[in-house]
Design goal:
The protein is an all-alpha fold and 151 residues long. It has one domain: 3 helical TM bundles of succinate and fumarate reductases (Up-down Bundle), CATH 1.20.1300.10. α1 packs across α3 and α3 runs antiparallel to α4. It comes from Streptomyces sodiiphilus. It is found in: Membrane. This is Succinate dehydrogenase hydrophobic membrane anchor subunit. Its main location: membrane.
């Protein structure tokens, strides 16, 4: 029995291997590899912020829910008492900023991976950046301008 040449390809100078196209072809607008290390810094930020967020969130849950009496104790007065301390303001501010930047960076990566058209990718990232900045600014404003004497 003789094997077909179609199923047993022998690659060499006369018969080169097939070329696998990249997932997204480079264009004139594609950033060059020498532009910078933004993606490496983004990758490093995700790892470091993730570790810090685990500590902050688990500490927050332990202190707020276990040591301070649980969810039934959380009220307007409870928050007012907590945010009267600069320590708790800083804790919540760092947690807010890291969570939003960590989540925003993760969604940016997902948008880059799955949005195929440049225009779609651009608008999705603009929407993401706008929502992230809005949430960070509003949360920061609330933390620093919280008035426990509001009526």
């Amino acid at each position: 029995m003789q094997m077909s040449t179609e199923t047993t390809a022998s690659y060499g100078p006369d018969n080169p291997a097939p070329v696998i196209e990249p997932p997204r072809a480079r264009t004139g607008r594609t950033p060059s590899a020498t532009r910078g290390n933004f993606e490496m810094y983004g990758w490093l930020f995700m790892r470091l912020s993730g570790i810090l967020l685990v500590v902050l969130v688990l500490g927050h849950l332990l202190i707020q829910l276990v040591l301070d009496g649980g969810v039934s104790k959380i009220s307007f007065a409870f928050v007012a008492g907590r945010w009267a301390s600069p320590f708790w303001q800083a804790w919540d501010l760092i947690m807010l900023w890291l969570a939003m930047l960590h989540g925003g960076n993760g969604l940016r990566t997902i948008i880059n991976d799955y949005a195929e058209r440049d225009n779609t990718r651009f608008w999705l990232k603009m929407l993401l950046y706008t929502a992230t900045v809005f949430t960070v600014l509003l949360g920061t404003l609330v933390i620093f301008t919280f008035d426990p004497n509001i009526r």
